[in-house]
UniProtKB/TrEMBL annotation:
Protein name: NADH dehydrogenase [ubiquinone] 1 alpha subcomplex subunit 1
Main location: mitochondrion
Keyword Secreted: no
Annotated localization: Mitochondrion inner membrane
Species of origin: Tilletiopsis washingtonensis
Amino acid sequence: MPVPWEAFIPMGLVVVMFGVTGTGFNLAKRMTNDGKPQRHSVDDWDDMMMRRDQRLTGSLRGQATDPIAKPEFATSSVWNTEKHNI
C-alpha cells in the first residue's frame, strides 16, 4: 500500500502547532507561578499557607526564610476583617 506523501505537510503542521501552543501554555503558567511548576491537588492547608506566604512575601509562591516576621504581618491577618457576633 503506497504512502500518501502529500499528507505529511498538513500532519507536520498540526503536530508543530500543538507543540507550540502546549509550550506557550506551559510558559504562561510558569510565569504566573514565579517560574515554578503548577500546583495540583491543593487542599485547605495548602490554600491557607499560600495566603500566608502572600501576606509575608507578596507572592503566592514565595517563601520567607526570616525567623521573625515583618511588622506589617502583625496587622495583615484575615481575622481583623471579619465581624464577630458576641
